[in-house]
Structures are given as C-alpha cells and as structure tokens.
Amino acid sequence: MTMDMVNLFAISVGTLAIPLLAFMVSFLLWPSTLIKVYYWYWRRTLGMQVRHADCGAYRFCYSYRGKPGLRPSILMLHGFSGHKDAWLSVVKFLPKHLHILCVDMPGHEGTTRSSADDYSIQGQVQRVHQFVECIKLNKKPFHIVGTSMGGNVAGVYAATYPSDIFGVTLICPSGIKHTSETKFDNQLQDLLNSQHTLSIPLIPNTAEEMEEMLRLCSHVRFKVPQQVLQGLVDVRIPHNDFYQEVFMKIWGESSRFALHEHMHQITSPLQVIWGKQDQVVDVSGARVIAEVLSGCRLDLLDHCGHSVVMERPRKTAKLILDFIISQQSTQNASNKKQC
C-alpha cells in the first residue's frame, strides 16, 4: 500500500470518526440537546414547518403541514407538559395533503408564558380561540383533536365555539367524572394525605422518576436508555415550577371536571379514543361521555394506556381520518337530500 493510499484511508476514517465521536459525546454528556435535534430532524422529515403567530403581545408557536382543502383542517392540542412535537408520531401516518396544525399550548414550549395568564381549562380555551382567530383558521369549520389535558380543552372549546368546529376527537381526555379510580388517582390521594411536599407523578425530577412516569402513562413497556431518560428530565426541569402551577390549576375545583360540565353543549360530531389500560384517566370516562352524547363514536383500544399517541400512532391516525371521512360523507348525503 502506497503512502498516498495510507493517507487517504486515514483521512476517510477520520472523517467518519469525527461525527460518530460527536454523536457519542452528545449522547453521553448532552442528551437533552440530542433530543431537541431529534425533533428538529423528524419535523423536517415529515414536512412540518414551524411558525409563530403574534396576537398583540402574545405569541403562539405552532407547526403545520399542507393547506386548507376539501377535508377540514385539523388542529391538534397536546397534553399536560407536552409540546407540539408530541403529535409527530401520528402526523407520520396522516396523508400529506391534509392541512394539519399542532400548537404549543399556553405557556408550553415556544408559546408565551406569563405569570398573569390564566392556565385553567377555561383560560386555555380562550387562548386557543385567540390563536384560531389570529391565523383565521375558523374561516371554515375545522376538526379539533386533543389528548389528556388537550382533550379537556378541545371538548370545552367545541362546547363554547360550536360554529368553529366540524368535528371533535378526544383522546383519553381529562375533565370527566369517571366511575373508577386509577393508579394515578390513588397516588395523588396518598400524597395529599401525607405530610410531605406534594410530588406530582407527572412532573419528574430524576431519571428514575421519568421512568416511573413512562410506566404510569404507557401500557407498552418501552426500553429507554438511562441517558435518554436523563435527557428527557433535563429538558423538563427548567419548566417544572410552571408545570406544577398549571397542574394545580387544571386539577383545581373550577377545571378538574370542566369537560364533564360542558359536554352536553357539544353539538359537533364527536369521537372518543381511549386506551383500555389507562392508569391516569380511567377508561370508564368514555362510557360517561357516551351516556350524555349518545351519537358519539367510541374507539377503545386493547393493550394501550394513557399515551395512545405514543403507543398506537398508526391506529390513532387511521381512526381520526376514518371519522372525518365518514362525517363528510354523512354531511354530503344530508345536503343532497335537502336539495
């Protein structure tokens, strides 16, 4: 082997080794940075673009794909302490021509956080409506999707602004007086009865607590490396005081059963998706909704917990799309009869 070939081989190995070494160092020392890069790459891969909507002094951050078309636009509201990228796993399985918007909820991720803001369910509904009007999303009725806290907000939004809404999909929504207690309910009750400072299971401070939260929220057992767990915690810790404030608001007297108190006012077609093994918000809430709104569609998923979006993204996307298509078909048939 000539000296030129040896040098070329060394340069090639070095070129490959540097990014690999950078990845390993980032994984071990800065996992939170790697997680942010991961979401950025996934958004680009799926064609999601990040935008900001300035409504006076308030700024909303959201991602979107597609343009308004024959199908209604879809607005997706994430759950407590989440962010717009929580929907990427579902967006992956939705047609690219659909107009999809995933917004950071009030105070979360890139949306304005203010100590003077109202983070109750009703307060969040008003902010989401401000966003909708700011980007003129309600020029045509849109489909709203919400999970957990976002489901509570989505349901109350549909009850409050019925003319904005084409249809509603609630995924394991909070805000319902379910008939059975969950593991999460019991944990909170134990904490409230104890003399210790309230430590909320959905607000982890260590990698071990993060792992426990994932077990609480998921029926499927994901094997998550310790470094990734630590990275997930590192991303959240600067926001934990805010999360505690929001939790106390949505779990407070005025918001805890907001959806239950408003659901009889929902007039739009309604779909409820729930994991049968949900340990956070009991699946019995689905039957409670169905008893009040007899025309709603129930999709209860076997071997699935509270994190339906993470555990069953393909199935979730299919159920949402099928529901929208069926409602459009029903609406078109009704219009033809009237003509």
How would you summarize the topology of this molecule?
Blueprint: H1 3-29, H2 31-46, E1 49-55, E2 58-65, E3 74-77, H3 88-91, E4 100-103, H4 121-134, E5 142-147, H5 149-160, E6 165-171, H6 183-193, H7 207-217, H8 226-236, H9 240-250, H10 258-262, E7 270-275, H11 284-292, E8 297-301, H12 308-311, H13 313-338
Parallel strand pairs: 3-4, 3-5, 5-6, 6-7, 7-8
Antiparallel strand pairs: 1-2, 2-4
Helix pairs in contact: 1-2, 2-8, 4-5, 7-8
Domain AB hydrolase-1: 72-313
Pfam families: Abhydrolase_1
Family: Belongs to the AB hydrolase superfamily.
General description of the model:
With 339 residues, the protein is of the alpha/beta class. The protein contains 13 helices and 8 strands. Strands 1-2-4-3-5-6-7-8 form an 8-stranded mixed sheet, sandwiched between helices. Strand 3 (74-77), helix 3 (88-91) and strand 4 form a beta-alpha-beta unit. The N and C termini lie far apart (84 Å).
* Number of contiguous helices: 13
Strand-and-helix sequence, N→C?
HHEEEHEHEHEHHHHHEHEHH
In spatial order, strands of the major sheet run: 1-2-4-3-5-6-7-8
CATH class placement: Alpha Beta
What is the CATH third-level topology name?
Rossmann fold
Shape: globular
Say which CATH homologous superfamily is assigned: Alpha/Beta hydrolase fold, catalytic domain
Distance between the termini: 84 Å
What is the CATH architecture assignment?
A: 3-Layer(aba) Sandwich
What is the count of β-strands?
8
Low-confidence stretches: 3-30
Q: Kindly estimate the percentage of residues that lie in beta strands according to DSSP.
A: 5-15%
Helix proportion range: 40-55%
Overall structural class, as computed from helix and strand content, comes to alpha/beta
Number of domains: 1
Pfam family, one: Abhydrolase_1
Subcellular location: Late endosome membrane; Lysosome membrane; Mitochondrion membrane
Main location: membrane
Membrane topology: Single-pass type II membrane protein
